[in-house]
Amino acid sequence: MSADALRYKLNKKLKIGASRSNNLDDGNKKAQSAFGEREYGGKNLKLCVKDKKINTGQEGSQGMIDAKKKPRPWSSHGARKRIYADQESSREIVSYGNAKAPIRKALSRTRQNQVKDDFVKANHSNVSSRSMWTSGMLEDNTSESKRSSCKVKNLVKSAQVSYAGLSKKYDRSNLGSSQGLDPSEKKSPGVSLLNSAKKKVRDRRSAEEDLEASGEKPKKRKRVIRIDPYDISNKRLNDDINDDESAKEKKKDLEQKVDMSKNAQFRAIQPSPSILSFVEDNLLGRRRLIELRRAGYNTELSAPLDNIPFSTSTERERIEENVFRNKLTFFAAAKVSSSFPPPDLPEIAFAGRSNVGKSSLLNALTRQWGVVRTSDKPGLTQTINFFNLGSKLSLVDLPGYGFAYAKEEVKDAWEELVKEYVSTRVGLKRVCLLIDTKWGMKPRDHELINLMERAQTKYQIVLTKTDMVFPIDLARHAMRIEESLKAHKSVVQPVMMVSSKSGAGIRCLRTVLSKIARFAKL
Ligand SMILES: Nc1nc2c(ncn2[C@@H]2O[C@H](COP(=O)(O)OP(=O)(O)OP(=O)(O)O)[C@@H](O)[C@H]2O)c(=O)[nH]1
Ligand SMILES: [Mg+2]
């Protein structure tokens, strides 16, 4: 073939390439319109073909380079063949050598179809499209061929960019890609939220398990009720405080129940008629002043019930009571047994707990207020004090035991001294054991009683401060003590009841004790 013929053929082919590029442009437009909307995986996805951002078209250019390197295929009739990238594998060769108009149309259609296929392949295989034709034929030295090749290259680039952009867009939105994308981003936002919530629950459980494994129990949240402190209708300000208060109330209720049962037992006591008559005759117990006035007593006096006209008592009683009309004089105080005075006179001792009214009773009996000191404060009398009542009787004021404002060692010393005195004292004719009517007998009282029983010391129970309780209760107290001491041998009955304040029962006690003086005389 001559050179002119070859040049002619080349020019012709270049013209075909140019016209084909126009066709391709049309085909692209058609493809865009045809594939503007397409469904993928059941999801409506809009594929915008015009979107030309993102891809740099590296793969496309690589494809072009590859195509350059490869040897150009030739058709059977000697014309060079144009090979499409995706056709390379199948080796399907399309010849353009002697192409006519209908054939060219068919070719353009096939290219359009190829473009379609490339769209699909690019999106499904996630590989950048290689559906471009190799530009081997266009690499010619002529300027026309260069221009046309440039056109074709631009078209190819645009197609690559559009495919890459589409694929990338699709990858991001739906399918995701394996190229460095976060797996969580592949999923829908609803699923990711659910997973994050599940993860939080899992983390909390694992933390609790760790705490249990380490032995620390997870702290339970306390239910705290906050109430307006200025709202007086709401009493519960704090659960903890309320719990403490309820516990205290329950404890109080229990204690009250026990006390009530004790009270019930006490009220069940039936005093003997002798005790009841004794209480009534001497106006013992808590009495109203009007009651005392109606009985003929002068309530203006300090101890009205002791100021009874002599006419009301018998002659014998008057003689006996005269013993206590003698002058009361203090003559000895002892802190230890070695300092006890010699027993010249018969002695009557007054023992009992601190503040029970021992010193007050001595004053009431002798009507000589101020000789023996008294005090509201327990523990005033700290030594054994000896008083002479004339030349007929000796009265002894003992320190009290039990609670007192003094050191423990000192109190122990008093107690030991009292025990020694009541158990060893020669000339001791009677111990008046004073019991506070309000409190009754206490263990230390029983202790002293047992000691006196062992020492065979005569003792008599004297209930003091009887003006503090009701007459019936006083009778019950007396009855209970009498019952409890029935088996005792050294006890002297009856139980005496006095009030140093009102003077009730004082005269009777004088009568009982003056007999000792008389016997002592004998
Ligand atoms: N209401 C009333 N109070 C009394 C009676 N006897 C004594 N008191 C009061 O009881 C308090 C104690 O009296 P004291 O005579 O000092 O008692 P005590 O047993 O000698 O006390 P100590 O010396 O500490 O052991 C004083 O405040 C007296 O006024 C009484 O019969 N009735
Ligand atoms: Mg005293």
Automatic annotation (TrEMBL):
It comes from Ziziphus jujuba (Chinese jujube). This is Uncharacterized protein LOC107411523. SUPFAM superfamilies: P-loop containing nucleoside triphosphate hydrolases. Coiled coil: none annotated. Pfam families: MMR_HSR1. Keywords: GTP-binding, Magnesium, Metal-binding, Nucleotide-binding. The keyword DNA-binding does not apply. PANTHER family: EXPRESSED PROTEIN. It comes from the Eukaryota. Residues 17-37, 57-82, 105-150, 166-227, 235-254 are annotated as: Disordered.
